[in-house]
Amino acid sequence: MLLAVIGGVAIGVGRVITTFYALHLGASHAQIGYIAAFEALGRLLVTVPAGFIIARYGARTIYALSSLVPMLLNSFIPLMTVWYGVALTRGLVGLAIPFRIVAMNSSFLQQLPQLGAAKSGWYRGAQSFGVMVLGPFLASALVLHASYFWSYMLVAALFGVMALASSRVLPGEEAQEPPQAESGSAWQQVRELWQIRPVRDSCVVEFVNSATTSVFTTFILVLALTVANLPQTQAVSLVTIQGMVTVMASFGLGRILILLSRQQVQLLSVALAISGLVLLGTGLLYWQLAAGTVLLSAGAALIGLSRTHQLSQLKVSKSKISGIYNLANMSGAFVGAVLGGVLGEWLGLQGLFLLWIPVFLLTAWWANRD
What we know:
Order of helices and strands: HHHHHHHHHHHHHH
Number of helices: 14
Helix content: over 70%
Number of strands: 0
Largest sheet: none
Radius of gyration: 19 Å
Protein backbone atom coordinates (compact mmCIF):
# COMPACT_ATOMS: atom_id res chain seq x y z
CA MET A 1 0.00 0.00 0.00
CA LEU A 2 2.90 2.38 0.70
CA LEU A 3 4.16 1.86 -2.85
CA ALA A 4 0.68 2.73 -4.14
CA VAL A 5 0.67 5.93 -2.07
CA ILE A 6 4.11 6.99 -3.35
CA GLY A 7 3.07 6.25 -6.92
CA GLY A 8 -0.08 8.28 -6.42
CA VAL A 9 1.91 11.24 -5.07
CA ALA A 10 4.19 11.19 -8.13
CA ILE A 11 1.18 11.16 -10.48
CA GLY A 12 -0.75 13.77 -8.48
CA VAL A 13 2.12 16.24 -8.26
CA GLY A 14 2.92 15.76 -11.93
CA ARG A 15 -0.65 16.45 -13.05
CA VAL A 16 -1.17 19.59 -10.98
CA ILE A 17 2.27 21.03 -11.74
CA THR A 18 1.72 20.34 -15.45
CA THR A 19 -1.59 22.26 -15.42
CA PHE A 20 0.07 25.28 -13.81
CA TYR A 21 3.09 24.98 -16.11
CA ALA A 22 0.79 24.88 -19.16
CA LEU A 23 -1.00 28.02 -17.97
CA HIS A 24 2.43 29.58 -17.42
CA LEU A 25 3.26 28.82 -21.05
CA GLY A 26 0.01 30.46 -22.17
CA ALA A 27 -1.88 27.29 -23.16
CA SER A 28 -5.60 27.60 -23.93
CA HIS A 29 -8.38 25.45 -22.43
CA ALA A 30 -8.28 23.16 -25.45
CA GLN A 31 -4.49 22.87 -25.36
CA ILE A 32 -4.56 21.92 -21.67
CA GLY A 33 -7.08 19.24 -22.61
CA TYR A 34 -4.77 18.01 -25.37
CA ILE A 35 -1.86 17.73 -22.90
CA ALA A 36 -3.97 15.48 -20.68
CA ALA A 37 -5.19 13.58 -23.76
CA PHE A 38 -1.64 12.85 -24.92
CA GLU A 39 -0.84 11.22 -21.59
CA ALA A 40 -4.09 9.26 -21.72
CA LEU A 41 -3.33 8.18 -25.30
CA GLY A 42 0.07 6.89 -24.25
CA ARG A 43 -1.55 4.83 -21.53
CA LEU A 44 -4.23 3.59 -23.90
CA LEU A 45 -1.78 2.21 -26.44
CA VAL A 46 -0.06 -0.24 -24.09
CA THR A 47 -2.62 -1.07 -21.38
CA VAL A 48 -3.77 -4.42 -22.78
CA PRO A 49 -0.24 -5.57 -23.82
CA ALA A 50 0.93 -4.62 -20.32
CA GLY A 51 -1.46 -7.12 -18.75
CA PHE A 52 -0.24 -9.98 -20.94
CA ILE A 53 3.45 -9.08 -20.55
CA ILE A 54 3.12 -9.04 -16.76
CA ALA A 55 1.16 -12.31 -16.83
CA ARG A 56 4.10 -13.84 -18.71
CA TYR A 57 7.13 -12.30 -16.97
CA GLY A 58 5.92 -11.24 -13.51
CA ALA A 59 5.55 -7.83 -11.96
CA ARG A 60 8.85 -6.95 -10.31
CA THR A 61 11.19 -6.32 -13.27
CA ILE A 62 8.48 -4.73 -15.43
CA TYR A 63 7.45 -2.39 -12.62
CA ALA A 64 11.03 -1.27 -12.00
CA LEU A 65 11.70 -0.52 -15.68
CA SER A 66 8.41 1.30 -16.10
CA SER A 67 9.32 3.53 -13.15
CA LEU A 68 12.74 4.46 -14.53
CA VAL A 69 11.29 5.75 -17.82
CA PRO A 70 9.01 8.41 -16.18
CA MET A 71 11.91 9.35 -13.93
CA LEU A 72 14.00 10.32 -16.96
CA LEU A 73 11.16 11.95 -18.92
CA ASN A 74 9.97 14.17 -16.07
CA SER A 75 13.50 15.56 -15.88
CA PHE A 76 13.06 16.99 -19.40
CA ILE A 77 9.61 18.60 -19.05
CA PRO A 78 10.81 21.92 -17.50
CA LEU A 79 13.06 22.33 -20.56
CA MET A 80 9.99 22.54 -22.81
CA THR A 81 8.93 26.06 -23.79
CA VAL A 82 5.82 25.26 -25.87
CA TRP A 83 2.66 23.43 -24.87
CA TYR A 84 3.01 20.71 -27.51
CA GLY A 85 6.47 19.84 -26.18
CA VAL A 86 4.92 19.26 -22.77
CA ALA A 87 2.12 17.24 -24.39
CA LEU A 88 4.56 14.99 -26.27
CA THR A 89 6.65 14.31 -23.17
CA ARG A 90 3.58 13.58 -21.05
CA GLY A 91 2.45 11.21 -23.80
CA LEU A 92 5.73 9.29 -23.50
CA VAL A 93 5.30 9.17 -19.72
CA GLY A 94 1.85 7.71 -20.35
CA LEU A 95 3.38 4.79 -22.25
CA ALA A 96 5.12 3.59 -19.07
CA ILE A 97 2.36 4.15 -16.51
CA PRO A 98 0.07 1.18 -17.44
CA PHE A 99 2.80 -1.35 -16.67
CA ARG A 100 3.02 0.02 -13.13
CA ILE A 101 -0.74 0.21 -12.62
CA VAL A 102 -1.51 -3.25 -14.02
CA ALA A 103 1.28 -4.83 -11.95
CA MET A 104 -0.08 -3.37 -8.72
CA ASN A 105 -3.75 -3.89 -9.60
CA SER A 106 -3.35 -7.53 -10.63
CA SER A 107 -1.49 -8.30 -7.40
CA PHE A 108 -4.32 -6.71 -5.41
CA LEU A 109 -7.05 -8.57 -7.31
CA GLN A 110 -5.28 -11.86 -6.59
CA GLN A 111 -5.41 -11.13 -2.86
CA LEU A 112 -8.88 -9.58 -2.67
CA PRO A 113 -10.87 -12.83 -2.27
CA GLN A 114 -8.86 -13.48 0.91
CA LEU A 115 -9.12 -9.87 2.10
CA GLY A 116 -12.91 -9.72 1.69
CA ALA A 117 -15.40 -7.48 -0.12
CA ALA A 118 -15.23 -4.74 2.51
CA LYS A 119 -11.61 -4.09 1.46
CA SER A 120 -12.35 -3.80 -2.27
CA GLY A 121 -11.36 -0.15 -2.28
CA TRP A 122 -8.12 -0.34 -0.31
CA TYR A 123 -5.71 -0.30 -3.26
CA ARG A 124 -7.66 2.39 -5.08
CA GLY A 125 -7.96 4.32 -1.83
CA ALA A 126 -4.21 4.18 -1.17
CA GLN A 127 -3.40 5.31 -4.69
CA SER A 128 -6.10 7.99 -4.61
CA PHE A 129 -4.71 9.30 -1.32
CA GLY A 130 -1.45 9.94 -3.14
CA VAL A 131 -2.93 11.21 -6.41
CA MET A 132 -5.68 13.41 -5.02
CA VAL A 133 -4.68 14.41 -1.47
CA LEU A 134 -0.95 14.35 -0.85
CA GLY A 135 -0.07 15.07 -4.48
CA PRO A 136 -2.11 18.27 -4.90
CA PHE A 137 -1.16 19.45 -1.39
CA LEU A 138 2.52 19.04 -2.18
CA ALA A 139 2.07 20.55 -5.65
CA SER A 140 0.39 23.61 -4.17
CA ALA A 141 3.36 24.14 -1.86
CA LEU A 142 5.80 23.65 -4.72
CA VAL A 143 4.02 26.20 -6.93
CA LEU A 144 4.36 28.78 -4.18
CA HIS A 145 7.88 28.03 -2.98
CA ALA A 146 9.81 26.23 -5.73
CA SER A 147 10.54 26.59 -9.43
CA TYR A 148 9.01 24.32 -12.05
CA PHE A 149 12.44 22.76 -12.57
CA TRP A 150 12.76 21.56 -8.96
CA SER A 151 9.12 20.51 -8.89
CA TYR A 152 9.66 18.14 -11.79
CA MET A 153 12.93 16.94 -10.27
CA LEU A 154 10.96 15.87 -7.21
CA VAL A 155 8.51 13.93 -9.39
CA ALA A 156 11.45 12.22 -11.12
CA ALA A 157 12.97 11.32 -7.76
CA LEU A 158 9.73 9.71 -6.57
CA PHE A 159 9.68 7.44 -9.62
CA GLY A 160 13.29 6.51 -8.85
CA VAL A 161 12.31 5.54 -5.31
CA MET A 162 9.57 3.28 -6.66
CA ALA A 163 11.97 1.56 -9.04
CA LEU A 164 14.26 0.72 -6.12
CA ALA A 165 11.45 -0.30 -3.74
CA SER A 166 9.70 -2.65 -6.16
CA SER A 167 12.19 -5.46 -5.54
CA ARG A 168 11.11 -5.60 -1.89
CA VAL A 169 7.36 -5.33 -2.45
CA LEU A 170 6.22 -7.01 -5.67
CA PRO A 171 6.43 -10.72 -6.62
CA GLY A 172 9.41 -11.72 -8.73
CA GLU A 173 9.80 -14.23 -11.52
CA GLU A 174 7.82 -16.86 -9.63
CA ALA A 175 4.71 -15.06 -10.85
CA GLN A 176 5.44 -16.14 -14.43
CA GLU A 177 2.82 -17.74 -16.59
CA PRO A 178 4.61 -20.31 -18.79
CA PRO A 179 4.14 -20.19 -22.56
CA GLN A 180 2.22 -23.49 -22.68
CA ALA A 181 -0.48 -21.94 -20.46
CA GLU A 182 -1.37 -19.49 -23.19
CA SER A 183 -4.25 -20.39 -25.51
CA GLY A 184 -4.32 -18.44 -28.74
CA SER A 185 -3.08 -14.96 -29.50
CA ALA A 186 -3.36 -12.11 -27.04
CA TRP A 187 -6.12 -10.45 -29.02
CA GLN A 188 -8.03 -13.72 -29.28
CA GLN A 189 -7.89 -13.99 -25.50
CA VAL A 190 -9.07 -10.39 -25.23
CA ARG A 191 -12.09 -11.22 -27.39
CA GLU A 192 -12.84 -14.25 -25.25
CA LEU A 193 -12.66 -12.21 -22.07
CA TRP A 194 -14.91 -9.57 -23.63
CA GLN A 195 -17.62 -12.22 -24.06
CA ILE A 196 -17.86 -12.54 -20.27
CA ARG A 197 -20.69 -10.18 -19.34
CA PRO A 198 -19.30 -9.00 -15.96
CA VAL A 199 -16.04 -8.06 -17.71
CA ARG A 200 -17.85 -6.27 -20.52
CA ASP A 201 -20.28 -4.45 -18.22
CA SER A 202 -17.52 -3.39 -15.84
CA CYS A 203 -15.41 -2.04 -18.69
CA VAL A 204 -18.24 0.05 -20.15
CA VAL A 205 -19.16 1.53 -16.77
CA GLU A 206 -15.49 2.21 -15.97
CA PHE A 207 -15.08 3.94 -19.35
CA VAL A 208 -17.83 6.45 -18.55
CA ASN A 209 -16.66 6.83 -14.96
CA SER A 210 -13.08 7.49 -16.05
CA ALA A 211 -14.14 9.97 -18.75
CA THR A 212 -16.09 11.95 -16.16
CA THR A 213 -13.21 11.92 -13.69
CA SER A 214 -10.87 13.01 -16.49
CA VAL A 215 -13.09 16.01 -17.27
CA PHE A 216 -13.04 16.98 -13.61
CA THR A 217 -9.31 16.56 -12.99
CA THR A 218 -8.35 18.27 -16.27
CA PHE A 219 -10.60 21.29 -16.03
CA ILE A 220 -11.59 21.92 -12.41
CA LEU A 221 -8.53 24.09 -11.78
CA VAL A 222 -9.13 26.04 -14.98
CA LEU A 223 -12.84 26.48 -14.12
CA ALA A 224 -12.08 27.63 -10.58
CA LEU A 225 -9.32 30.05 -11.61
CA THR A 226 -10.67 31.53 -14.84
CA VAL A 227 -14.48 31.16 -14.62
CA ALA A 228 -15.28 31.31 -10.90
CA ASN A 229 -12.27 33.61 -10.26
CA LEU A 230 -11.35 31.79 -7.06
CA PRO A 231 -7.93 32.29 -5.43
CA GLN A 232 -5.27 29.69 -6.16
CA THR A 233 -5.48 28.08 -2.72
CA GLN A 234 -9.24 27.49 -3.02
CA ALA A 235 -8.86 26.16 -6.57
CA VAL A 236 -6.24 23.60 -5.54
CA SER A 237 -8.30 22.66 -2.48
CA LEU A 238 -11.02 21.35 -4.81
CA VAL A 239 -8.56 18.74 -6.09
CA THR A 240 -7.65 17.92 -2.50
CA ILE A 241 -11.33 17.58 -1.55
CA GLN A 242 -11.81 15.17 -4.44
CA GLY A 243 -8.94 13.10 -3.13
CA MET A 244 -10.11 13.10 0.47
CA VAL A 245 -13.63 12.02 -0.48
CA THR A 246 -12.31 9.33 -2.84
CA VAL A 247 -10.00 7.95 -0.16
CA MET A 248 -12.68 7.96 2.56
CA ALA A 249 -15.18 6.36 0.19
CA SER A 250 -12.70 3.72 -0.94
CA PHE A 251 -11.82 2.71 2.61
CA GLY A 252 -15.20 3.29 4.22
CA LEU A 253 -17.93 2.36 1.76
CA GLY A 254 -16.93 -1.25 1.13
CA ARG A 255 -19.59 -2.49 3.55
CA ILE A 256 -22.27 -1.06 1.26
CA LEU A 257 -21.35 -3.81 -1.22
CA ILE A 258 -22.50 -6.33 1.38
CA LEU A 259 -25.66 -4.51 2.46
CA LEU A 260 -27.02 -3.55 -0.98
CA SER A 261 -27.40 -5.38 -4.28
CA ARG A 262 -25.11 -4.53 -7.19
CA GLN A 263 -27.97 -2.73 -8.99
CA GLN A 264 -28.77 -0.66 -5.90
CA VAL A 265 -25.12 0.31 -5.48
CA GLN A 266 -24.94 1.31 -9.13
CA LEU A 267 -28.07 3.48 -8.90
CA LEU A 268 -26.87 5.15 -5.70
CA SER A 269 -23.47 5.94 -7.19
CA VAL A 270 -24.98 7.40 -10.36
CA ALA A 271 -27.41 9.54 -8.32
CA LEU A 272 -24.50 10.97 -6.31
CA ALA A 273 -22.46 11.66 -9.44
CA ILE A 274 -25.31 13.40 -11.27
CA SER A 275 -26.02 15.61 -8.24
CA GLY A 276 -22.36 16.62 -8.25
CA LEU A 277 -22.40 17.39 -11.97
CA VAL A 278 -25.42 19.67 -11.51
CA LEU A 279 -23.62 21.73 -8.86
CA LEU A 280 -20.39 21.90 -10.86
CA GLY A 281 -22.32 22.92 -13.95
CA THR A 282 -24.35 25.70 -12.31
CA GLY A 283 -22.48 27.03 -9.28
CA LEU A 284 -19.75 29.68 -9.16
CA LEU A 285 -19.38 30.02 -5.40
CA TYR A 286 -16.70 28.03 -3.64
CA TRP A 287 -19.13 26.06 -1.47
CA GLN A 288 -21.14 25.04 -4.53
CA LEU A 289 -18.08 23.77 -6.38
CA ALA A 290 -16.85 22.04 -3.21
CA ALA A 291 -20.21 20.32 -2.65
CA GLY A 292 -20.31 19.24 -6.29
CA THR A 293 -16.81 17.84 -5.94
CA VAL A 294 -17.83 15.82 -2.86
CA LEU A 295 -20.88 14.29 -4.53
CA LEU A 296 -19.18 13.51 -7.84
CA SER A 297 -16.16 11.98 -6.12
CA ALA A 298 -18.27 9.81 -3.82
CA GLY A 299 -20.31 8.53 -6.76
CA ALA A 300 -17.23 7.76 -8.85
CA ALA A 301 -15.53 5.95 -5.95
CA LEU A 302 -18.60 3.81 -5.29
CA ILE A 303 -18.71 2.80 -8.95
CA GLY A 304 -15.08 1.72 -8.76
CA LEU A 305 -15.66 -0.27 -5.56
CA SER A 306 -18.56 -2.20 -7.07
CA ARG A 307 -16.72 -3.10 -10.25
CA THR A 308 -13.46 -4.06 -8.53
CA HIS A 309 -15.31 -6.45 -6.24
CA GLN A 310 -17.21 -7.98 -9.15
CA LEU A 311 -14.04 -8.61 -11.17
CA SER A 312 -12.21 -10.13 -8.20
CA GLN A 313 -14.80 -12.93 -8.08
CA LEU A 314 -14.08 -14.15 -11.63
CA LYS A 315 -11.99 -17.31 -12.08
CA VAL A 316 -9.72 -15.95 -14.83
CA SER A 317 -6.25 -14.39 -14.97
CA LYS A 318 -6.33 -11.23 -12.87
CA SER A 319 -3.47 -9.61 -14.79
CA LYS A 320 -5.36 -10.05 -18.07
CA ILE A 321 -8.59 -8.71 -16.55
CA SER A 322 -6.62 -5.80 -15.14
CA GLY A 323 -5.23 -5.04 -18.58
CA ILE A 324 -8.68 -4.89 -20.18
CA TYR A 325 -10.24 -3.02 -17.26
CA ASN A 326 -7.45 -0.46 -17.29
CA LEU A 327 -7.88 -0.13 -21.06
CA ALA A 328 -11.43 1.03 -20.36
CA ASN A 329 -10.10 3.39 -17.70
CA MET A 330 -7.43 4.87 -19.98
CA SER A 331 -9.82 5.10 -22.94
CA GLY A 332 -12.26 7.03 -20.81
CA ALA A 333 -9.51 9.35 -19.59
CA PHE A 334 -8.44 10.02 -23.18
CA VAL A 335 -11.97 10.63 -24.47
CA GLY A 336 -12.84 12.80 -21.48
CA ALA A 337 -9.78 15.01 -21.96
CA VAL A 338 -10.20 15.35 -25.74
CA LEU A 339 -13.96 15.93 -25.74
CA GLY A 340 -13.64 18.17 -22.71
CA GLY A 341 -11.07 20.34 -24.48
CA VAL A 342 -13.15 20.64 -27.65
CA LEU A 343 -16.62 20.94 -26.08
CA GLY A 344 -15.36 23.20 -23.32
CA GLU A 345 -14.41 25.80 -25.91
CA TRP A 346 -17.88 25.54 -27.48
CA LEU A 347 -20.18 25.11 -24.46
CA GLY A 348 -18.04 26.64 -21.74
CA LEU A 349 -16.54 24.62 -18.92
CA GLN A 350 -19.72 24.53 -16.84
CA GLY A 351 -21.78 23.47 -19.82
CA LEU A 352 -19.34 20.61 -20.22
CA PHE A 353 -20.24 19.21 -16.78
CA LEU A 354 -23.96 19.49 -17.54
CA LEU A 355 -23.47 17.65 -20.83
CA TRP A 356 -22.21 14.61 -18.92
CA ILE A 357 -25.51 14.13 -17.05
CA PRO A 358 -27.38 12.30 -19.86
CA VAL A 359 -24.30 10.12 -20.37
CA PHE A 360 -24.52 8.97 -16.75
CA LEU A 361 -28.25 8.38 -17.03
CA LEU A 362 -27.75 6.22 -20.12
CA THR A 363 -25.01 4.28 -18.34
CA ALA A 364 -27.26 3.69 -15.32
CA TRP A 365 -29.97 2.26 -17.57
CA TRP A 366 -27.51 0.08 -19.48
CA ALA A 367 -25.74 -1.29 -16.40
CA ASN A 368 -29.04 -2.28 -14.74
CA ARG A 369 -30.70 -3.85 -17.76
CA ASP A 370 -32.00 -7.42 -17.48
